[in-house]
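Worked Example 4.2. Consider the chain below.
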Amino acid sequence: MIDPKIIRKHPDKVRDSLQKRASDFDLDGYIEADQNTRDLISNVEELRSSKNVINKNIANPDLSDDEKSDLISEVGQINKKLKDAEQSLNDVSDRSKNSSLEIPNILDDSVPHGSSEEENIEIRSWGEIPKFEFEPKDHSELGENTGGIDFESAAKLSGSRFVVMKDGYAKLHRALKQFMLDVQTEENGYTEMYVPNIVRSDCLVGTGQLPKFADDQYRIENEEALYLIPTAEVPLTNLIRESILDESELPIKMTAHTPCFRQEAGSYGKDTKGMIRQHQFEKVELVHIVKPEESYDALEELTQNAESILKKLNLPYRVMLLCSGDTGFSAAKTYDLEVWLPSQDTYREISSCSNCESFQARRMKARFKNTDNNQTDYPHTLNGSGLAVGRTLIAVLENYQNEDGSVTVPDVLRPYLQNRETI
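Applying the procedure from the previous section yields the following structure tokens:
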């Protein structure tokens, strides 16, 4: 949620950000609703004040019965106006609040203007692209040839875009998540968390998945609005919702491994083959909660923490600064990590690392005590994948494949696989 004071005082800044995003949000309509809300608040307060003054006058023992009767009648008229004004205020304020949840975050000035991923900017790259003396296979063919990946059985169980993994492939998948958690906690200073995979709708509103992306969520049929999490970002970030932190508690760095569930609405026909885009997948998520002045340093740190996994696995990758049209709803600035996939002869996204500034904290009503001004302020929240486990598995399978269909286990993963050299 954007600070309403910024919208009132600097609407052109918000309008410029919306134009860069190619957003169709009706800013003028929101500003009008916001002004109507404030006008109605003022009207309600004036009516309540008038009513209080008259009620005090009615208690005056020196008034005649006729005078008291006139005042009581006047209070009755004010009560009617007050009831109508309060109802109007509730209606307009609800519309204004709902509308405020639809405004995307204001982009940081360093975000380049662009309409699609083709206009993202490469910041750096790392690693050597492997050269094969044979035609490299994609992960699906590798897995299906060896029996390690089974899409047909998964379809019988759950439908399309699910997977069953077996034996060495399942063990490699498990090894990756353990390895990622160990690196992030033992080397990069994160606290490991275990969190629920089911959350209330308020949590999704807090991080920005609702109401904007309702079609992408898996809702559970229940008396209460409950959802399967699309990412551990949701429960981790919401741990601070409706709370006031001490400044000494910041920064907070958390990591968690969870399954993630997404409908992938709107991605029909895109990456339907293989494991690139699944309805259920797993991630090791990284979340930072920091003081506002530290958030852009934290973004660089978080991105490097995610990169450290790829470096240790010796997987070629590049870091991309997302352009305005490709930056997510809640983010002010995002770096994507893209790993090399030999079968596609290109880089594919494996992590998004974003600074959401105070956008999520405002939606969650999360604050901290600022000792500089002795007031409460909104912390900045950041999140990123460290990494998406399934896509990392794909990258390992394809980059470490051998001509006979086996896959060499990266050195850093062998301790997690009883020192196996291949699967």
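Residues 133 and 343 are 14 Å apart (CA to CA). The chain has twelve helices and 16 strands. Compare this with Example 4.1 before moving on.
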